[in-house]
Design brief:
Chain lengths: 368, 368
């Protein structure tokens, strides 16, 4: 069966009340769907994206070659089987792929918000999606699945909309962002802010994409370290040199340097720096327990079946963070959760690249 | 007994033949001594400093409050006991605290070398020290001790001057810099190179120290992540906010952000960016096995008693790197080595801050 990829943008004129007390109004949400909604609307699977992801989670657009970011997981006969499920993935507010973010026009002006854009939180991102689903007349879903910041969203859905999803599957994520993740984000934020081409937020986005914002490239390089692991770096790069003209250069460039350069500078061609600042802020201030007396109290709200998946060598969201959620659930007497720690050398990137290590778990969790 | 701190600078007019094939000529080496040289010159302990360290390893200068970087380890009745040993610590060539580096004047011109400074290696740093000791009429020493890049120097001494030291003590270091360490250095290098105030190396050092080179600050922030560990960051910072006017700010600044900012920007006031580029390059290309068929072959050259100390949660030089040296020594049938892995939460910084965890080992290794 075909993937039946559809892309839409919904426009909302009602105010979105944000956690900060501020209002976003009006706003757009761009989203993508795969598969077919069944008659009783019982086959919806929501997929949530990570920091620099988008609504384009699966399939390949016409005239493009690169597939969506979880294409290996979503599709006909895949773990999230589009023959069976109707999958929805939306671009989070604050991002830069169609949903309203800092470079969107600030109504009624024809100028971008830039720093006037309000701070958004992961809870706000989830709330906006909940309103989108209302619009689509979907009031309960089969499952919500996400990794990294997508996993944060899945957990926020579980806590704040406890009767909305039957199942929650959260990968490579945490209950509250820990200092090492904040530290990596800090490097990127400072690097962007200090770049004179960033013009204190008053850059021309077209020129910036053309020339590449080196400050964001450097920040992204730091990010890439946190996405890898010592093991994967050793396997992938070792101390190999990048070959130039067939020569082994004694004092030349290492493969790992070349990898960071390529990924760092290339990133600036497709992501917006203000969106990067706003989303990393959202990640930093993410705390499932905010508004509750404790993490335990927040987790008590969860009614869905909860499936937690961590990766052993993840440097960004350490596996013990997921273990801590599982421990709290156990103490709470929750019987409807599972936790597995996947033995992978890939580090944080595993949730995007080593699908064969966990796709069966996702499949079983969805179908079980 | 007094520490007997003395600071000197020696000037050398003979050329220093570098590993790259280039020549450094003339050059200076600034060094410090503690304790008193005994009559038969049998009580010399050489201490080697890390990336941003200097010859000032112990004691407090007049009118200053901050002690040398290993003051807790070096002194009367301390692990490196200056009542007994005559300690020498020299600033490496390529650095910026008195020894010749990229901002030194390029003789006979009255202009700094800047990029005309040759690439130096850890082996070159060691060679220059060996020549300094010759000048001081010291042809054999009791021990060489160092951590991080200081440990690299200690190991290079052991391999290239096998009859020079009785004992080698190397902490928190490696036999060849691995891709994760190169990756952290890459972030710092790119960040410095991209900063317009760096002026492609043609900056005014006084102005730069005054205003602070933000590109180097950001690079140093990334460095600080690698010096810490997940455990130490959790203990030290958690998700605590920096208090401002006594208010707990919901969306304010995290302690970890404040720590990185302070250390990053402050660093630019006391370290030179070109020196940072040259020394990180030296670290990246450090490989004990260069010039040998294998690491095993290079290690076979060692005659000294070798003591290896790693730290369990070191993110920069992983404990398994030291284990690999120990494994090779064992395979080689070497009987004169010891290896211990210290249980510390401090990460790489442990060799500078958690002295009580290893000072007895250093003491025993020196005296045993």
């Amino acid at each position: 069966m075909s993937l039946n990829l559809q892309t839409y943008t919904e426009h909302f004129t009602n105010p979105l009340y944000l956690e900060s007390g501020r209002i976003l109004e009006p706003y757009d949400i761009t989203y993508e769907t795969y598969g077919t909604l069944n008659d009783d609307k019982s086959n919806v699977v929501v997929v949530c994206h990570a920091l620099t992801g988008s609504h384009h989670a699966a399939g390949v657009y016409e005239n493009e070659t690169k597939a969506g970011w979880w294409d290996g997981l979503i599709g006909s006969k895949k773990a999230i089987d589009t023959d069976k499920y109707f999958v929805i993935c939306s671009n989070v507010i604050g991002s830069c792929f169609g949903s309203t973010g800092p470079m969107s026009m600030q109504h009624p002006h024809l100028e971008p918000y830039r720093y006037k854009f309000p701070v958004v939180t992961v809870k706000d991102m989830v709330k906006a999606q909940r309103i989108l689903f209302d619009r689509l007349d979907i009031h309960r879903v089969h499952a919500i699945v996400g990794g990294s910041m997508g996993g944060m969203q899945a957990l926020q859905f579980a806590v704040h909309y406890p009767n909305f999803a039957n199942k929650i599957i959260a990968l490579a994520t945490t209950y509250a962002t820990q200092p090492w993740a904040i530290a990596f984000n800090k490097v990127a934020q400072e690097s962007i802010l200090n770049d004179p081409d960033f013009k204190q937020g008053y850059y021309d986005p077209d020129i910036l994409k053309e020339q590449g914002l080196s400050g964001m490239a450097v920040g992204r390089m730091a990010g890439h370290i946190s996405f890898l692991s010592h093991e994967s770096m050793r396997t992938k790069f070792g101390r190999d040199y990048k070959l130039t003209d067939g020569l082994y250069e004694l004092f030349g460039k290492f493969q790992v340097e070349s990898y960071l350069e390529y990924n760092g500078y290339n990133f600036t061609k497709w992501f917006d720096p203000l969106a990067y600042l706003y989303i990393t802020k959202a990640i930093n201030i993410y705390d499932l327990a905010r508004g509750f007396d404790s993490l335990a109290e927040s987790l008590k709200r969860i009614n869905a079946d909860l499936h937690l998946i961590s990766f052993k060598n993840d440097l960004l969201f350490k596996n013990f963070e997921m273990q801590e959620i599982a421990d709290e659930l156990k103490k709470n007497g929750n019987k409807n959760y599972s936790y597995i720690d996947i033995d992978s050398d890939y580090g944080h990137d595993a949730f995007l690249v080593e699908l064969e290590k966990f796709d069966n778990y996702v499949k079983d969790a969805l179908n079980g």
